[in-house]
User: Fold these one by one.
Assistant:
Number 1:
Amino acid sequence: MSTTTVATATGVLDHAHREPAHPSLVRSAVGDILPLAVGVFPFGVVIGVAAAAQGLGPVGATATGVLVYAGTAQLTAITMLAGGASAATALLAVLVINARLLMYGAAMEPLFRPQPWWFRWFGVHFIVDQTFMIATARNDLADPRRFRRYWLTVAAVLTGVWVVANVVGVLLGPVLPADSPLGFAVTAMFIGMLLMKLTTRPALAATVVGAAVAAATATLPHGMGVILGTVAGIVAGTVTSRRSK
Amino acid sequence: MSLLTVLLLAAVVTYVLRVSLVTVVPAGQLPTIVREGLEHVSPATLAALVAVALVGGTHGGPALPVWLAAGFTAAVAWRTRNLLVTTGAGVGMLALLTWALS
């Protein structure tokens, strides 16, 4: 066994030749992700509640939560199917909503490029809004081992919180009143995320046009309002960006 | 098609999106306009989801408490730039308004 690398639950890499664990980086990673993980907890609970309402048990809700690992798209798919949308439309919505992951992947590609093959295929699964934001905000992750350690720590913490939140939601679902304000947590979170992205004119144009078109088409069947609004917003943002150059 | 099947397919779609520009096709090979468009997916999607939730459906259609809570949430987000505080404030305000106006 020469340089076999094992990823532990804490993301600390334990090499055959006993490389130091760099607890400060692990602590720093936990410190970065924990506030955001706590922030997504209500979101995970809401998804668990929604999944339970549609007949998914704790195992199904948790498994799909970890496999999809994209709450907005997952909740949209559940909500659309519950509202009578077809599977194809729900999947189209997932595709459109998660298209931003392409952008995140493109931006993070330099960090993944020097990684071993298993990490390039496995690590990308944990690209979400929160992990993208904190990892790209740091400038000390150029070393491949350092990034790997950081990324696995962040992924372990976020996934742990996500699983617990999903399970809590599934268990809470049957006892919550139908009109619980907890359902507003998702919208409140989206509003917060949106407001924090409004830092440029193209982002503002994408928001205003996307919201206007989505509102005008909100009553269309199969959740088409979200898709039309998103596409219109993307076009508006791109046009504004090109005009301002 | 069952919900479980759709969510498993959603997981496949989502993974393909994640891995595409990291491992399969280098991002630099994408046309410029596509890369520019991807930058605006996030605000456009969030705006559309919020608009549909407020106007159309998730919370039972347009309702004064929901609109007021949404406005309050936006103000808190703008002021604090903190997602956890924003979410908690929004849910708390809606609970308060629903109780007060019922």
Note: Helices of chain B lie at 3-24, 32-38, 41-56, 64-80, 83-101.
Number 2:
Amino acid sequence: MLKMTLSQATPNPLQLSLECTPGELHALVGPSGSGKTTALRTIAGLNNAETGSIECNGELWFEANEINGITTALSPAERSCGFLFQQYALFPHLSALENVCIPLYNSAPEPGKRKAQAGQWLNRMGIGELANRMPSQLSGGQQQRVALARALARSPKVLLLDEPFSAVDAPTRQGLYKTLAELRKDLNIPILLVTHDLREADLLADRITVIDQGVGLQTAAPQVLFERPRNSRVAELVGINNKFEGVFTAGKLTWNSCNQVFDVLDKGKIPPNTPVAWVIPADGISLHTKPSSSSIEADVEQISALGQIAVIQLLLNNATHTLTWEASAAEVKRLELEVGKNTHVQIDGSKIHIMPLRTINDPRRFTS
Amino acid sequence: MDTDAILLSLKLAMWTLVLILPFGVWVAHRLQKAGKSKSWIEAALALPLVLPPTVLGYYLLVGLGGKSFFGIPLVFSFAGILIASLIVNLPFAIQPIQRAFEAINPEIIEAAQVSGLSNWQIFRLIELPLAWRGITSAAVLTFAHTLGEFGVILMVGGAIPGETKTVSIAIYDRVQSFDTAGAGVLSLILLGTSLIAIAISYGVFGRQPSRSKERGI
């Protein structure tokens, strides 16, 4: 189990707590410069935070507080982390096999044994036949596999992956996803994945921590994160299209610049007349050809067909709001939707998720 | 012919190379982690490049004369010109190695750290092989520069045959005594020796360092 709490103001602000259990793949997601890589480097011991602690399997790797400064800081060599660098960072003067031998240098002093172990790792990555190639003679995907074999050869207690799939093409990426999924089952160690690709995080991770300007905003399973973002900035970062603002009072949500009022679940946490942000997932929206008492009139502004899926943009008639809705091609045909056509939108209030307003310039609000 | 002078020049160049290269590697490596003092240290090490040989020679004459820093007079001796040669060659030995260390991608060093290598192992297995070209350049420059060094050697060592009279000083002596033929022969020998020395240096050092089999990876 990896447990950490980190805090620092400079050079890059960081305020992050997370836990990662053995076998769990935990993704750190956020925009460029949000502090994801800094967090990963701090776990590996390549950076030190100003205050906080890092503990792995009960062993204290790092501890610092405001009074005593850093009291414990194991070196990167002592921490036993497998670290996969974004640009691989293979040793350019060593062959693929020798690259994988390096982490075994101290644990397997006999060169023959070391090479045999390194060869096994390369075989496991499916590149055993490339053992004698130099890094410059390998493709990006092959280099990535050598780097992964090198990261794992030391039998690390934690595997840290820094945007490992960003520099490879789509088919290679799919192959690496598969390799990672298979390794996960066998390794049973905490795996932290840094990525800015939400789809990748959704596909691979058990849990996602959204990080922005160094602050961990929310940790949740992907499904929960997409349906119930903690605040409007998280919603923005996870790419939720249908995010609006309103005023919440005792179970009633009034949509800003629109007379629409929804009955929503009141957990008693938000005071009356509080300006809020709210999101509605795709399954909370339905379109109808005929109006009903609670439907909202809208015009079809744009239809983007993507294979069997169509993304429809609707301009609500009584406001300037635009709603995005995804539907199958069959559904579009059934509703006879076309650009400019009038339709009726039904929003299911029970599916609405409301959250505090939060701006990008105010990262520390609503972080609890 | 001044065979002694030729042999003395080669001996001086060899000793300079043997002594200055390990020191150059050490200083260049340390300079990477030097803080605010780095600019001053670099400036001090580059001084022999910009100072006139007479100025440097004067300070060395004063420093190495009398009891010198080492307790015994070192001027007009081989030890004296060796010390002078080491000082004069500092920038030629350190700068190429320093540039080579600086050119190593920091992520590669970090990858070695997280791979569990100690600092010494990182230096031996990763940094030194990657900086090999820079070390080669430093060796060639130092060797060639020592063979041709004149001003400082003359100031510190004078022209004692077999002790401090290097080939470049011997050429100067021949020209002074209007023996242009002798000076021409010596110049040609110095040119050829330098060429061969550089070619051998490239041959020995220019290859990639021994592969992992010898290093035990």
Note: Chain B has one domain: 3-32+43-215.
Number 3:
Amino acid sequence: MHDVSLSMLRVVNGVILLYLLAPIVVVVATAFGTSPYPVFPPAGLTLHWFDRFLSSPELIQSTRLSAALGLVSTLCATTLGTLAALALVRYRFRGKASVSVLLLSPILFPAVVLGLALLVAFTRAGLAQTFSGLVAAHTVLITPFVIRLVMASLAEFDSSIEEAARNLGAGRLRTFFRVTLPIIRPGLLAGALFGFIISFDELVITLFLAGPGLQTLPIRIFASIEYSSDPTISAISTCLIVAWLLLGVPVYMRFLSVHRA
Amino acid sequence: MAAPLALLAVISFKDYQPGRGIIDEWQLGNYTRFLTDRFYLDVLWSTLLTGAGVTLLTLALGFPLAYALSQNRGWKRSALYMGILMPLLTSAVVRTFGWMILLGNNGFINRTLLQAGLIDHPVRLMYNLTGVIIALTEVLLPFMVLALDAALLNISPSVIEAARNVGGRRTRIFFRIILPLALPGIVSGSVLVFSLSISAFVTPSLIGGAQIKLMPTIIYQQAMALLDWPFGAAIAFIMLFAIAALLIPALALIERRSRLA
């Protein structure tokens, strides 16, 4: 009886995993097919679509734009996020609870609403359809992730180490760079990495704010698949899937609850 | 973040006239227009229904997966975790693209069913709510699994062992021990998936096309295609209100349970 239900659970989970991974398998498989539109299972084997991606000036420009946007936003978010996390953990101040809710809220906030709100505000401030506007929006979006992960690193951190460093004559800056920073580094790196991935992939808010000159890679993909189907998109997607797996999985496995218990 | 939202709230009480832009006069017209028009009420209703359907499906599919995840240790847990991480690290646009290849009239699913002789003509799976629900459930499933896993990990295997030793049957153990202990995870996972699914834009607009109208897609359409920011803003606040009205009781429930425990 025990074994029967256990193997039933295995079969059920196999089917669910198949469903969960199906679109990824399909996208990767169609990137290598020879037919002029993505069909699954693919016929033939070619690298033509990767070549199409890498030799298209527009797509390369969009990739560069998304990478630049991700890097600058991540830099802003890690700086702001670390300061906010330190303040939230260290200091007691009035309204602290509501500040932490506010700082963490963009995670659950509907992107369409945030996009429209930022469009209205940025149009007044002259930031709509500019690179700085996109950086500001992405920073708002990813800072909460940095705050969360840095706060998690800080939770296990005994603040008397810092006091000891200060008592031994280290200045504030020296204490921060030599004591605090190494301790929060895992959370900081994880936050920065996920921040970069989220920013690079972000579509909805960017759709509201990007002008004709700011076509990020997700916007190009979205515009292209809305009306047609092209294996070049499969090739781009495959590159992204592989890149994020190589970057994201080690960090996830090390810092998050995979190995718990 | 708060300032753009306040500005959006103000805008939602203004009027928009094509050619003249936003009229600077306070009025409730946008809200009454939505709440008295059968068309918009139907959009709200089908959005809530889609959200409820997706939440129930992710719960049904996520539970067996999360249970297996929480019961396994070591490399088995890591391997299973990878299967959930991979979709989580792949953007919704890319995964929706995979579903478009699978669900089309000439897609893999319809061709397979036709070849097997199970159907005479293709089943419509694109540009309707069925397709949106199939794809959206897959897109949001990892969030549910992770929420359930967090709750199930806290159940000590020795509790289940003890129940089995005193002669508890599997179904009884499931309903009397596992399910009640997993309840916080069920509630927080459902809250997360429900709010993400009613505010989802990418998957409904790509799989549903122009025919399927849900709250996020009409907000985008009003704001970006018709340039009626005030009406878009009003719809956004009606959506936020709908999310809050359902979430606040659920969050209060979690709070009360954790205080009782």
Note: Chain A touches chain B through 68 residues (CB under 8 Å).
